[in-house]
TrEMBL record:
GO terms for molecular function: DNA binding; N-methyltransferase activity; site-specific DNA-methyltransferase (adenine-specific) activity. Its EC number is 2.1.1.72. Residues 1-247 form the DNA methylase adenine-specific domain. This is Site-specific DNA-methyltransferase (Adenine-specific). One of its GO terms (biological process) is methylation. Transmembrane segments: none annotated. PANTHER family: TYPE I RESTRICTION ENZYME HINDI METHYLASE SUBUNIT, TYPE I RESTRICTION ENZYME HINDVIIP M PROTEIN-RELATED. It comes from the Bacteria. Belongs to the N(4)/N(6)-methyltransferase family. Keywords: Methyltransferase, Transferase.
Length: 287
């Protein structure tokens, strides 16, 4: 339906079926994959089903109670040898150890498939308020002069974008164009070789002239760093806290100003209490 509405052609398989459960594209190899699979899908297979599925070869079979890692391995199996996949998942996918998910994540990391992890703010979706993350996985992190990629073997980029975004309603937030550009530019600057990055900057496609870790926002970590964090991929564990600029105001001065503000608010609270009590008594609900 989505394809038809947008006037796009697509191969949906030989027969009507759930291609996630019954692979309809066994020979498909894609250079790029983008996806937003359903979060935490339960009971997507029985214990006896898909235990020898070729898409999961080399990895533990994803658990029946949550399809997150089924989706990850499904997309990984569809990548070409130099392909990259980017997809949105629930935050739990970055740290869950339930039913062997931690073991699969460790295998992905040790096989050097995880390229970038991005933590996004909550309230981005109309249907759920939970914060989400973006995974980028690839089969090849070696230098690629044709694509302008540097050698990123044994490296993973972590971006903590939870502080970004602007509220557009009482319940929803959106990432601005500048927010998206900051995330994308950081990723491209980290991945690109010097020649490619310089060309991107000259063409106005990237504002970051060279990648460097930014406390509280981004960190390029190696596999040993990730191992030290028990193979958890939550960006906040790696980027650290943002640097706080000293405003030069002495502590005693700050404390005096804060105390005066607090006492003023406490006095206002007392006056409000009196007003509320008076109104309740006037309505016949006094103590």
């Amino acid at each position: 339906m989505n394809l038809a509405i947008r006037g796009l052609a697509g191969n949906l398989g030989e027969r009507p079926a759930d291609t996630f459960f019954a692979d309809q594209h066994k020979d498909l190899k894609a250079d790029f994959i983008m996806a937003n699979p359903p979060f935490n899908l339960k009971d997507w297979r029985s214990d006896a089903e898909l235990t020898d599925d070729p898409r999961f070869t080399g990895y533990r079979t994803p658990p029946t109670g949550n399809a997150n890692y089924g989706w990850i391995l499904h997309m990984l199996s569809k990548l070409s040898e130099t392909g990259t996949a980017g997809f949105v998942l629930a935050n739990g996918s970055m740290s869950s150890n339930t039913s062997g998910e931690g073991e699969i994540r460790q295998q992905l990391i040790e096989n050097d498939r995880v390229e970038c992890m991005i933590a996004l703010p909550g309230q981005l979706f109309y249907t759920t308020q939970i914060p989400v993350c973006v995974w980028f996985i690839t089969k090849d992190k070696t230098e690629n002069k044709v694509k302008g990629y540097r050698n990123r073997e044994k490296e993973t980029l972590f971006i903590d974008a939870r502080a970004l975004g602007t509220m557009i309603s009482r319940t929803n937030k959106e990432l601005t164009k500048d927010d998206i550009a900051l995330i994308a530019d950081t990723y491209h600057a980290w991945r690109s070789d010097e020649t490619e990055l310089k060309a991107r900057v000259e063409r106005g496609e990237c504002k970051v002239e060279h990648y460097q870790d930014q406390a509280g926002f981004s960190k390029s970590a190696n596999i040993e760093d990730i191992k030290a964090h028990d193979y958890v991929l939550t960006p906040g564990r790696y980027v650290g806290a943002a640097d706080v600029e000293d405003d030069g105001i002495p502590f005693e001065t700050k404390m005096r100003e804060l105390s005066q503000t607090l006492y003023k608010q406490m006095n206002q609270s007392k006056e409000l209490d009196k007003t509320i009590r008076h109104n309740l008594e006037a309505l016949g609900y006094g103590e």
